[in-house]
Design a protein that fits this description.
Butyryl-CoA Dehydrogenase, subunit A, domain 2; three-stranded antiparallel sheet; 6 strands; 2 domains; alpha+beta
């Protein structure tokens, strides 16, 4: 959504078109602002009106046509289907260490596969329970969709589950929910970097 609200036309064309025209339906966007706990940094209250080191500590330094990111984030909204990152992760970074509040902050889109970005588990019971709850919701949604498709003809002579696309979507949902249920833990969180992001992707 930050790209839709505040992005340049170039950014919208690059990221929104990719998200809305992906034939596989697997394109994911993400958002992350929170950082590891510490003193005084590490806060979800990322627009705290104090300069660094309070508030957001992940820095983005201009290097020619790119930004180099250094730091860690916690609890991204998604770590991707395979926990290797989403297609486009919007990250709140500090571009001006001397300015407090939102004046020193920027949002940068970090693409999946960007060198230097890694994910790992934060092994907390709440995260494991949240992950399990999400899997439960996904499976319940699948069962509901399966029941609907098996009994609704939509005006045709047979239930819509017999149509290829419906069956394909249900099979994909079933596979993903089963895969998530066998994945230990919750989404990866911490990502570290010395990573270079093109300047045109920052806002």
């Amino acid at each position: 959504m930050p790209v839709a609200w505040y992005g340049s036309e170039e950014q919208k064309e690059r990221f929104l078109r990719a998200a809305t025209s992906d034939p596989s339906g697997e394109y994911l966007g993400g958002w992350t602002a929170s950082e590891p706990p510490g003193n005084p940094s590490g806060t979800a209250n990322f627009d705290i009106p104090l300069p660094r080191p309070a508030g957001v500590g992940l820095t983005a330094t201009r290097d020619g046509d790119h930004y180099v990111l250094n730091g860690r984030k916690y609890w991204p909204s998604s770590a991707g289907w395979d926990e290797q990152g989403v297609n486009a992760q919007t990250v709140i970074v500090r571009t001006d260490p001397e300015a407090g509040g939102t004046e020193g902050l920027s949002a940068i889109v970090v693409e999946r596969g960007t060198p230097g970005v890694t994910y790992k588990y934060t092994d907390k019971e709440g995260h494991r329970l949240t992950s399990n709850a999400a899997v439960g919701v996904a499976r319940a949604a699948y069962e509901k969709a399966l029941d609907f498709a098996s009994n609704n003809t939509a005006g045709t002579l047979k239930p819509i589950i017999h149509f290829q696309n419906v069956g394909y979507l249900l099979a994909t949902s079933h596979r993903r929910s089963r895969w998530a249920g066998t994945s230990p833990g919750a989404p990866r969180t911490t990502w570290t970097s010395t990573t270079s992001t093109p300047n045109s992707w920052a806002r």
